[in-house]
Amino acid sequence: MNSTLLMVAAGMRSRMESLDVLGNNIANASTSGYKADHEFNRLFWTERARSDPDTGAESLMPVAEATRIDFTQGPLIATEAPLDVALTGPGFLAVDGPGGVLYTRNGHLTRAADGRLVTPDGYALRDTVGAPITVPERGQIEIERHGAVSVDGSTIGRLAIVEFGGQPPLAKLGRNYFSAPANIRPGPAGATTLAQGHLEASNVSAPEAAVRLITVGRHFEMLSRVANLVGNEMDARSVEELGRTR
């Protein structure tokens, strides 16, 4: 196969993957606590990517190798809702997910019918002792900056806020939840605080993401045109060679 066409196809594929990442970021630009993904690319060599069969010159192909989660702080938005909390710092709220402990930065909390403090998906927030926090139906709720929850001045629990140190080794699970490898245990929060009546906004810069989306889309369009040109050239050569063999 023509090595130029192979390289163009690889470039188109990497641009498509970039478009998927950018599209997801833009779709979550208004999601509380969302952390943006950034793709990074590299070049790889393959036996099939030889630009000149006579000289053996080798070509490198682009590939979107993986994505990296951007855990930088998002801006805080005041909501005045007593069960909304925004995290400032590198920590996460620990919740009881369907298959174990999950982590989130989305502090839009609610009270379940049984009184448990839960996420919008119904996952119970964990206390520092690992148990759910039960909130009475009535009373003034206060959540202090280090996670202590009190009702009418009486402490009823403390939100489990954890930190991983450095770049958190977390994987996205969707719906703004993260999971940690089984061999990784987070530590208690030392540099993270909560702000009651606030939510952390997404750290996606919508204007920047939109500009990059347009740029990557133009790259894909350009590569598509190159693919068509190369394909037409190959067809022309094939017709010419067939004519010579007769």
Question: What does this entry look like structurally?
Answer:
This protein has 2 helices and 18 strands. It is α+β, with helices and mostly antiparallel strands and 246 residues long. It folds into 2 domains: 3-71 and 204-245, no CATH class; 76-200, no CATH class. Strands 5, 6, 9, 13 and 16 form a 5-stranded antiparallel beta sheet that branches. It has a 3-stranded antiparallel beta sheet with strand order 10-11-12, with no helix packed on it. A two-stranded antiparallel sheet has the order 1-2. A hairpin with a 2-residue loop joins strand 14 and strand 15 (177-179). Helix 1 runs antiparallel to helix 2. The longest helix is centred in the C-terminal third of the chain and has 40 residues, at 206-245. It is elongated. The two termini are 24 Å apart. The mean pLDDT is 86.
Topology:
Blueprint: H1 3-27, E1 37-52, E2 57-69, E3 76-78, E4 85-88, E5 92-97, E6 100-104, E7 110-111, E8 117-118, E9 124-125, E10 141-143, E11 148-151, E12 154-158, E13 161-163, E14 171-174, E15 177-179, E16 187-188, E17 193-196, E18 198-200, H2 206-245
Antiparallel strand pairs: 1-2, 3-18, 4-17, 5-6, 5-9, 5-13, 7-8, 10-11, 11-12, 13-16, 14-15
Helix pairs in contact: 1-2
User: Roughly how much helix do the residues carry, as a percent range?
Assistant: 25-40%
Number of strands: 18
Q: Structural class, from helix and strand content? A: alpha+beta
Strand content: 25-35%
**Secondary-structure element series:** HEEEEEEEEEEEEEEEEEEH
- Summed over residues and divided by their number, the pLDDT gives a mean of 86
Which value, in Å, is the CA radius of gyration? 26 Å
Regarding quaternary structure, what we see is single chain
Largest sheet: 5 strands, antiparallel
The number of distinct helices, counting runs of at least 4 residues, comes to 2
Coarse morphology: elongated
Q: Total domains, how many?
A: 2
Low-pLDDT stretches: none
Query: Terminal Cα separation, in Å?
Result: 24 Å
